[in-house]
Each structure stands twice: as structure tokens, then as C-alpha cells.
Write a structure and sequence with these properties.
- By secondary structure, the protein is α/β, with parallel strands linked by helices.
- The protein has 2 domains: 69-137, Ubiquitin-like (UB roll), CATH 3.10.20; 140-286, 3-Layer(aba) Sandwich (Rossmann fold), CATH 3.40.50.
- The chain is 32% helix and 25% strand.
- It has 6 helices and 15 strands.
- The chain has a 10-stranded mixed sheet, with helices on one face. Strands 3-5-4 form a 3-stranded mixed sheet, covered by helices on one side. Strands 1-2 form a two-stranded antiparallel sheet.
């Protein structure tokens, strides 16, 4: 008799048991030792060859650096007017015969810029044996009295104490204090910038121009006053709007010029008017 057993569904099943088939074991491929050794040998050869190339290039570079092919035999200088080429070369301290690769171009430029006349200096290599130095010099615009006389440049920077050989043929700026400029440099730049703007405006004019001015003075309240070269007449400009004020002065300056020796001051601070005070007299006249 068959042994019938009911399953959970109420049906009967036979007593036969299914046996799962054994999985086939994958056979590992034998290690290809010869191929591995071949690859390792090839990598080693390539690495060794690369090292030899690098060493060779390094030795070649050292030979080139040490050779006479890159030794400086010419230094050209451009842009200098106040400073001679000889002076700039001395500042650079570039010695003939030195290797071009031994030069620190930035350091050389900074050495040259230590001279007060030099605003900027750029040093360039021109292979194989040449160096070019390009210098930008400062341009004096006025002389400023700060206890000592200094040059004032077009950027409003005080840059050099005047020596005996320097030119004094510039308008003089007075009324500034050296300590105050150092304590508050930002305010000083603004004030000196106004002076520079006034000088540049005067330099473009025809009748009353920079050639007619001997001094520019800053008053304690910050306003500016001009002194004429002829007669030393005080021209009161005050603060700001210099162009419009000078336009008014120029319209009558040809009439005033012959009488400058008799004038005490000219006041341009009153809107749309020019007040002229005659020397040693109490009255004033409107022009």
C-alpha cells in the first residue's frame, strides 16, 4: 500500500522526495605566471627608462645653465629721463656674464623701484643672453612744503626731497602738515587730489593758467587759495567747483592783469560775482 499523506490543501502526495542536483564546481583557471612576470618586467623597464630620461634631462639642463650660451652680455634700458641708463643699471645690480637663470627678475625690479623717481620697473628676459628693463618715472607736478621741499606727482603722491640739482620751476603748495598727512593718509589723498585737479585745470587754460601762479595754499578750513606770480595777489577759491570759478576769473583777467600790483585779493566764493579788493583801501568792487 502506498503511504498517502495529506498536505495543507487537503490533497495527498506520494512519499517520493525530490533530490536537487549537485551544482557543478567551477574550475579555476590556472594562473598564467609567465604573463604576469612579463607584464611586471615591462613596467619595471619602462619605469627605469623614464628615470634615466629624467636624470638625463636634469643633467642636460644643468649643463645648459652652466654653459656660456645663457650668460648675460646685453642689458637694455628704456623709459628713463630723470635717471640715466647708467644709474638704472647700477640700481639693477646685474653683472655681465651672470647666467640668465640666476636672475630674480621681481627682486631686481623692486631694487630699481627703491629710487624715488621710479614709479614702476619691469624686468624681462630675452633669451638667450639679453635683459630688458622698462622704467616708468614719476612726473613732478608741483613742489610741496612739508618742512622740507618735496616733489608732488600727478597721482597726488609726495615722493622726493628736492636737492640742489633739482628743478624749482614748479608752483609751490603750502598749508599742509606732514604729520597730519601721515596720521590720516586717506584724508590727505583727497586734499592733495584736489590740488592736483586744480593744477591740471590751470594747465589747460589760456589767459589765467599755471604760468600765472606762484603758490597754491590750503587754508585751515580746507579751502584753496591761489597766489599770482605777478603781484602776489591772493585769489580765494574756497572748496570745490574750481572750474566754474576760474571761468569767471578768466572773463575779466585781461582787464585785471595790468592792475595786479594794486590789488589785495580776488574773491571767487560769491556765486556769479567776483569781489576785488584794492590794496590799502577799505572798499570792494564787484566785477
Amino acid at each position: 500500500m502506498r503511504d498517502l499523506k495529506a498536505n495543507s490543501s487537503g490533497r495527498y502526495r506520494t512519499g517520493k522526495v525530490r533530490v536537487k542536483a549537485n551544482r557543478k564546481k567551477k574550475q579555476k583557471k590556472p594562473l598564467e605566471l609567465r604573463k604576469i612576470l612579463h607584464r611586471a618586467l615591462r613596467v619595471a623597464v619602462l619605469g627605469f627608462s623614464g628615470t634615466l630620461v629624467l636624470v638625463g634631462l636634469g643633467l642636460l639642463l644643468q649643463l645648459l645653465v652652466a654653459s656660456d650660451l645663457f650668460r648675460i652680455d646685453q642689458v637694455s634700458v628704456s623709459g628713463g629721463s630723470e635717471l640715466s641708463q647708467e644709474k638704472i643699471l647700477a640700481l639693477s645690480d646685474i653683472q655681465p656674464g651672470v647666467s640668465t637663470f640666476a636672475l630674480d627678475l621681481e627682486l631686481i625690479g623692486r631694487k630699481i623701484e627703491e629710487n624715488p623717481w621710479v614709479r614702476s620697473a619691469r624686468v624681462e628676459r630675452i633669451f638667450p643672453r639679453q635683459v630688458n628693463i622698462l622704467v616708468e618715472e614719476r612726473k613732478p607736478l608741483a613742489i610741496i612744503n612739508l618742512g622740507y621741499l618735496y616733489y608732488l606727482d600727478q597721482e597726488g603722491e609726495v615722493f622726493k626731497v628736492l636737492g640742489r640739482k633739482d628743478s624749482f620751476d614748479f608752483p609751490v603748495v603750502t598749508g599742509f602738515n606732514r604729520d597730519e598727512l601721515l596720521e590720516d593718509p586717506q584724508r590727505g589723498r583727497i586734499q592733495l587730489g584736489q590740488v592736483v585737479g586744480l593744477i591740471e585745470d590751470l594747465d589747460q587754460r589760456s589767459s589765467f593758467n599755471l604760468a600765472q601762479v606762484s603758490e597754491i595754499h590750503q587754508e585751515k578750513n580746507g579751502g584753496l587759495t591761489i597766489y599770482t606770480l605777478t603781484g602776489g595777489v591772493k585769489v580765494k577759491l574756497g572748496e570745490g567747483d574750481f572750474r566754474r570759478k576760474l571761468d569767471r576769473l578768466e572773463r575779466i583777467y585781461t582787464q585785471l592783469k595790468p592792475r595786479l600790483e594794486l590789488l589785495d585779493y580776488i574773491d571767487l566764493n560769491v556765486d556769479k560775482r567776483i569781489i576785488v579788493r584794492i590794496e590799502r583801501q577799505q572798499g570792494s568792487a564787484a566785477g
